[in-house]
Prior knowledge:
heterodimer; A: mainly beta; six-stranded mixed sheet; 52% strand; B: mainly beta; seven-stranded mixed sheet; four-stranded antiparallel sheet; 11 strands
Amino acid sequence: xxxxxxxxxxxxxxxxxxxxxxxxxxxxAFDYFPWYQQFPxxxxxxxxxIRPDVSEKKEGRFTISFxxxxxxxxxxxxxxxxxxxxxxxxxxxTRGEKLTFGTGTRLTIIP
Amino acid sequence: xxGVIQSPRHEVTEMGQEVTLRCKPISGHDxxxxxxxxxxxxxxxxxxxxxxxxxxDSGMPEDRFSAKMPNASFSTLxxxxxxxxxxxxxxxxxxxxxxxxxxxxxxxxxxxxxL
Lengths: 111, 115
């Protein structure tokens, strides 16, 4: 019930393309869905987050799409750049409770 | 602000030895979290504190693991005795007063290798 399933495990996209990372959850009580970005040798850093009262949120080149009925949410990166190469984690929580992280997607943007 | 500070950055020890990892959260943050990251299990929450009080330690794998937060600016995670399966990257994170619904700021991590 507490799992967050993330796919794909790894992704290679050409510069300028739009990588899409997907996550699915079971617990309908989840009400906070952040995405974290992690570079090698660094800790994860919050990239963007969404709550289920909206279906989409954009911050710069990063967009979260949220489908409450399907219990899925995804991260899109517009005009991807080599500097976006990192591992991306989705997560979910119920307000005041612990974050459950997905297993991560290693993204490589090739020039 | 310097962000969350962790030490040491790397630790290599032998099985059976005691290991102590240290964390200094961002000043003013009320919540402190300890995570473990491995290839097999991903990012796991071990324990978290609110205002220096442990709130949930259900993620601590065994009694060999213990964590303390003696004051608002310092926390330790101790493993005694250490085992090779404890090898992982351990992260400390902190956040403001809304706990898990607020941004968690992660430290750079401590890479632990137990031989």
